[in-house]
Design brief:
By secondary structure, this protein is an alpha/beta fold. It contains 19 helices and 24 strands. Strand 1 and strand 2 form a beta hairpin.
């Protein structure tokens, strides 16, 4: 059986000028990064800002399981199917992080015959955007410690520094560290730590900024700590935004690649949805919308995380609104939500599938809270039974009143998602009703969190650690109360317990810590046991990645 890497290598890629021409990007606006990737010139992007936007399709999914759902694969397959139907289409995806690639999750370029390519380049380093984001973040870290060392004004209390460092790797040993050891020449010893780059506030601001000017303004607003009087100290106060923006200037230009079938794909930015807001860059999304009639984008993990944040954070800040939402589901994952273990998924089990419908139902209900038309994409696996597909499609039609389409894009590429593409076009033909956000801007921060917990997660109440509750109160008092809340929690459950599959209700949600991301424009609520620096599994994927005799990368998946 061919691997994703085998399929990607066998593909005949089109020259990038040919790909750009499909959506009106001239060759002169392409800045090549190797043979098969390019950035879009900022001047060209500015030249199309006045154009009307095309239609936006948001792809999301049921709650993830080890069985797999295939959200990125479906995004690519749907984009290729729309192209096959003659629609001018662009795809918008996040860039993969090195942490999952070398850890457990693997790459993030799609799979089978529904991939963005070049797969190796996209998954490893790509155009260097993540390195630029990490460098900008860590420059601010260095400037913070230098500011403390020299006792510069405004004074920054080393006990109240909140800005951490980042690295794009899963490294649990760096979660909590002590810096400044070795004597007076090395500064003041203090506790600190590392987050993974995709959890960086710089990453979030980068992905939500509408322009370089907006990005620099967001960088300036970032809070790095407090002075002896407990007054917040910003990145602007220590003179960091200009240099940070200089490091990010080239990275901010969206990246253009292609799918296996030659559909233009923007792959840019990459915040995780379980610890950040889980969407690709606004710069890429808005550029695609002005160039294509259809833009297909995804939001990370399940709809309770990625889609909720896409709508309540990204859309709230930008005025974007999807015309239709596609909810990806698999028979295998729904059977796991119905109580079947992974090893037993090969056997048909309609009863377990029906028990798992509760997870699908809640996600559909949640998306409808936002006034979104919903289409369910049933991502087929080879071992699925026909009676299972029939039961799932009938449940969507009869119990939920939504269209569900069987998709075989993993095996058949865009041809396997043509029915899904037609259903999406039909659902969007009259335009979506006005987007209805989950909560108003002027609701207090803790009430926003409780609203998300109750309405989206099915929780009964939220219990906040005293320090977290005090932090939310202080953010309200400092004038940040109108910001949306970005929940960091496990992606595997509606609850904060990853073992609770299905659609648990009446549970308690524990708020452990609250962090202000004033530059990104939201408040992070860390709930349950979620961490902002993942660890590696017992057998990391890195152990199987290497070079073959011809010097080619092998082992990526």
């Amino acid at each position: 059986m061919k691997t994703d890497l085998d399929i990607a290598r066998a593909a005949r890629l089109r020259p990038l000028p040919e790909i750009g021409a499909k959506i009106g990007v001239p060759q002169g606006a392409l800045i090549p990064y190797g043979r098969w990737a390019a950035k879009i010139d900022e001047d060209f992007i500015e030249s199309v800002e006045g154009r009307a936007k095309g239609r936006l399709v948001l792809v999301t999914a049921i709650s993830p399981t080890p069985a797999g759902e295939g959200k990125t694969t479906t995004t690519v397959g749907l984009g290729d199917a729309l192209s096959r139907l003659g629609e001018k289409t662009a795809i918008c995806l996040r860039e993969p992080s090195l942490g999952p690639c070398f850890g457990m999750k693997g790459g993030a370029a799609g799979g089978g015959h529904a991939q963005v390519v070049p797969m190796e380049q996209i998954n490893l380093h790509f155009t260097g955007d993540f390195h630029a984001i990490g460098a900008a973040h860590n420059l601010l870290s260095a400037l913070v410690d230098n500011h403390v060392y020299w006792g510069l004004e405004p004074r920054l209390d080393p006990r109240r520094v909140t800005w951490r460092r980042v690295v794009d790797m899963n490294d649990r040993a760096l979660r909590e560290i002590v810096v400044g050891l070795g004597g007076a020449a090395n500064g003041y010893p203090r506790e600190s730590g590392f987050d993974i780059t995709v959890a960086s506030e710089v990453m979030a601001a980068f992905c939500l900024a509408t322009s370089l000017r907006d990005l620099e303004a967001r960088l300036a607003r970032m809070i790095v700590g407090a002075g002896p009087d407990k007054a917040p100290v910003s990145a602007a106060a220590i003179g960091a935004p200009g240099a940070m923006a200089a490091l990010l200037r080239d990275a901010f230009q969206p990246n253009l690649v292609q799918t296996l079938e030659g559909t233009p794909a923007f792959v840019h930015g990459g915040p995780f949805a379980n610890i950040a807001h889980g969407c690709n860059s606004v710069a890429a999304t808005t550029t695609a919308l002005r160039l294509a009639d259809w833009t297909v984008t995804e939001a990370g993990f399940g709809a309770d995380l990625g889609a909720q944040k896409f709508l309540d954070i990204k859309c709230r800040q930008t005025g974007l609104a999807p015309d239709v939402a596609v909810l990806v589901a698999t028979v295998r994952a729904l059977k796991m939500h119905g109580g079947v273990e992974k090893a037993a998924l090969g056997a048909p089990d309609v009863a377990a599938l029906k028990r798992g419908f509760a997870n699908l139902d809640r996600h559909v209900e949640n998306l409808r809270r936002y006034n979104l038309p919903v289409v369910v994409a049933v991502n087929a696996f080879a071992a699925d039974a026909k009676e299972e597909h029939d039961a799932l499609i009938a449940h969507c039609r009869d119990a939920l009143g939504v269209e569900a389409r069987l998709c075989t894009h993993f095996a058949d590429g865009g041809a396997g998602a043509l029915d899904l593409a037609r259903a999406v076009i039909e659902a969007a033909k009259d335009g979506a009703p006005p987007l209805k956000l989950l909560y108003p801007d002027d609701m207090p921060l803790f009430d926003k969190l409780k609203t998300i917990a109750r309405e989206i997660y099915g929780a009964d109440h939220v219990e906040a650690a005293p320090a977290a509750a005090a932090a939310l109160d202080s953010f309200d008092a400092q004038g940040h109360g109108r910001l949306p809340v970005c929940v960091a929690k496990t992606q595997y459950s509606f609850s904060t317990d990853p073992a609770k599959r299905g659609a648990p209700s009446g549970h308690m949600m524990a708020l452990r810590e609250a962090r202000l991301a004033a530059g990104a424009g939201f408040v992070v609520a860390l709930c349950g046991d979620i961490v902002t620096m993942p660890g590696l599994p017992k057998r990391p994927a890195a152990r199987d990645i290497g070079l073959d005799a011809q010097g080619r990368i092998e082992g990526l998946f």
